[in-house]
Amino acid sequence: MVAEDPLFRGGWTIKKFTATVANDIWPEVAFFTLVATMVATITEKGIHDLAVNSSLLTVLGTVLGLVISFRTSSAYERYQEGRKMWTNISIASRNIGQIIWIHVATERTDKDKNKMTTVQSIIEKKSMINLVQGFSVATKHFLRGETGIYYEDLYPLICMLPRYANAVGPKTDADMLPLWAASEDEEHPLSTARPPPPSREATIAVPSSDDGKSEQSWFRSVTGRRNVSRSNSVDPEKALADVQSHRPLKPARNPPATSIYDYFPFLRIFSIFTRCFSRKSHHHYQRDAMGRKIKPSFTESNVPLEITIYLNSYLAYLLRNGYLQPALATGLMNNINSLQDTLSNLDRIGNTPLPFAYQAHLRMSLWLYLLVLPFQVVSLMHYLVIPGTAFASFMLLGFLEIGQEIENPFNYDENDLDLDAFCLAVQRELHEITAHTCPDPNAFVFTAWNQPLAPADRRNAQELTFNAEQAYQHTDHSDVEPGMATLRRTLLKNWRDVDRITRQAS
């Protein structure tokens, strides 16, 4: 998401124009400007009077402006709603992480008197919090039309989940759970021969589909296989676990490659012929026959749903063993439900575009209006009709294109929401929660660093409790008996002082 002017920040490159709609509308602006030039030249040189009555100009222009304004406003509303939904994911993730990390006991014994060690408890809770982080990442890929789990930023978070319904005995494709079955393909089948080796790059024998022989398939670690070029040295996936997969992991961010067609759209007509004689590259599937970037289509993805199922399963496990109080369990369940509701709302925003008939009719109406505009104002503006038509077409077409671009704010366009930044923010917050040591309040409350009764009483907690047998007594309250009466008077003085000081500051 671009929130600042990218044209004058850092080095200037032509790619920075992708943050505007100028590269999308300039061919249309040039066409209508050319029409205005022809009309002005023919009329002003006396070849033929092309001026027409402009009585409908004001009425039609007002109506068209209102319709374009509604189009842009409705698209921006979807943009803002998408941002709110990601805020809900962040809030629910924080709440779930705090409930699991703080309120689920570390030292515990189940109903069968089996005691869990501190290390086991921390590993269990941290693993479930990693699933919470994986939900936001899985939602990001789902909104971008990237199905499956084999991504550099998602696979390390959920790879420990069970692959097969039967924990023991032979495992076949019929036993594969939906989370994994929906992500598998014949080129890289899931191997059940043995777990991945600990080395960063190793091989494993994978059964072949034909003769039963084994072929070598490379395991690639998350940090060892990355070959995606970046404009900077920041690599967020380095903060994830260094796990290995039986198939190559896709990059966390895979936007369509920018080509010459993005800057010169009129050349797209030639792409039909060039594609017939060129070999397909790995980016061709992201462009249509005219060379335009294909917006990712929404497909059924059960990855975020499966993660919430495991979180609900963990909640049932906590309740079954009495590890969580009912009130906290209700809060945990409500936040998990909030993740599910937010996912449905995001799906609604991204998968419900403006009807094509409305978009087509609006664009055709705008084209007709701009095409007739020079004929209606040439008698009044003369040669000024040329820059006037250019400005009008740039303004109206720009607003129309902006509405179309931000209608689905979950893609890789420069003005779309920065889903990667949202996921990284959730990751940082969850790691901050798990860094909390949950200390006993006595360990930090009754120390010399704490002045709880300031500004009325600036003694620290250690001085106030130095003599536990002596009731609280403030030297300024000699007319009051020591004890709670003096303490309450101190708190009242606090209120008066704070009220006076803060009001003066404002």
Q: Which helices and strands appear, and what pairs or packs with what?
A:
Layout: H1 22-44, H2 55-103, E1 108-109, E2 115-116, H3 118-143, H4 155-158, H5 178-181, E3 203-207, E4 214-218, E5 220-221, E6 244-245, H6 268-277, H7 303-320, H8 326-350, H9 356-381, H10 385-405, H11 419-434, H12 461-464, H13 484-505
Antiparallel strand pairs: 1-2, 3-4, 5-6
Helix pairs in contact: 1-9, 1-10, 2-3, 2-8, 2-9, 2-10, 2-11, 3-7, 3-11, 7-8, 9-10
Explained architecture:
The protein has 506 residues and is mainly α. Among the domains are: 14-83 and 354-418, no CATH class; 84-146 and 302-353 and 419-438, no CATH class; 441-505, no CATH class. Helices cover 49% and strands 4% of the residues. It is built from 13 helices and six strands. The chain has helices at residues 22-44, 55-103, 118-143, 155-158, 178-181, 268-277, 303-320, 326-350, 356-381, 385-405, 419-434, 461-464, 484-505; strands at residues 108-109, 115-116, 203-207, 214-218, 220-221, 244-245. A two-stranded antiparallel ribbon has the order 1-2. The protein has a two-stranded antiparallel ribbon with strand order 3-4. It has a two-stranded antiparallel ribbon with strand order 5-6. Helix 2 packs antiparallel against helix 8, helix 2 packs parallel to helix 11 and helix 3 (118-143) runs antiparallel to helix 7. The longest helix is centred in the N-terminal third of the chain and has 49 residues, at 55-103. It is flat, with a radius of gyration of 32 Å. Residues 198-231, 280-285 and 287-292 have low confidence and may be disordered. The chain crosses the membrane at residues 25-43, 50-70, 366-386. It is found in: Cell membrane. Its main location: membrane. Residues 185-252 are annotated as: Disordered. It is a multi-pass membrane protein.
